[in-house]
Design goal:
Radius of gyration: 12 Å
CATH architecture: 3-Layer(aba) Sandwich
Helix content: 40-55%
Protein name: Selenoprotein W
Strand content: 15-25%
Number of strands: 3
Strand order of the largest sheet: 1-2-3
Main location: cytoplasm
GO molecular function: antioxidant activity
CATH class: Alpha Beta
Subcellular location: Cytoplasm
Family: Belongs to the SelWTH family. Selenoprotein W subfamily.
Number of domains: 1
Shape: globular
Oligomer: single chain
């Protein structure tokens, strides 16, 4: 579980560095799965591990998330 928390915190920091004070990032550890990870922009959900978007464990997935965040910020 400690590895999952570390990965979550690293991704959260990376996104917050990319978009300072613009995101609401939520994470929740759960006993049955590796946890939930959701990113909201202006109240709009742009990524949900629980909702099927999966892990952000590659650079291409990170860039896809960054593109979704930028699109949501442009609409906000």
């Amino acid at each position: 579980m400690a590895v999952v928390v570390r990965v979550y915190l690293q991704l959260k920091k990376k996104l917050e560095d990319e978009f300072p004070s613009r995101l609401d990032i939520c994470g929740e550890g759960t006993p049955q799965v590796t946890g939930f990870f959701e990113v909201f922009v202006a109240g709009k959900l742009v990524h949900s591990k629980k909702g099927g978007d999966g892990y952000v464990d590659t650079e291409s997935k990170f860039l896809k998330l960054v593109a979704a965040i930028k699109a949501a910020l442009a609409q906000a």
